[in-house]
Amino acid sequence: GGPFGCCGAEAVRGQNAGVARIDPRVVLMSQQSNPVAGIAVANGAMPAVTSTGGTAGGSLTAVVHAEIGAVVVLVVGFPAPATTIPPFADPFWLDSSAFAFLAFGVQTAGQPIQGSVALPPSTMFEGLRLNWQAVAIGPATGDQASNPSVSLVR
To answer: Rounded to two decimals, what is the model's pTM?
Structure first.
């Protein structure tokens, strides 16, 4: 999900005034030559996180896809407003006082970095929302934060 749990992973990000950074895996469909009106488009690889929700006694999971050779750290925590932390241009959507480092590794072809959180067999956690996000330090892309992805306990 996107930052508000309503949409898929963020595909277009404003980099600075008038420039949108778009992951090459994204295909924009438009009848215009520039599918993002009034904004210059810059293609650039970005780490992407997808996640699943779960029910009591099950688990929440997340998967990160990043540049091959990137060092990746997967983090899960409570949602928070966007915060930018240098040297990352991308914002973090995690509560800085309520998060956990869950998995890390080096991205290889066909082997995403992934992690899961076991849920207790209690319905008291129904409605709990957790955000997942990754940090990737790539050989070509440098320091990047991924999109936030939302998991919901149902």
So the answer is: 0.81
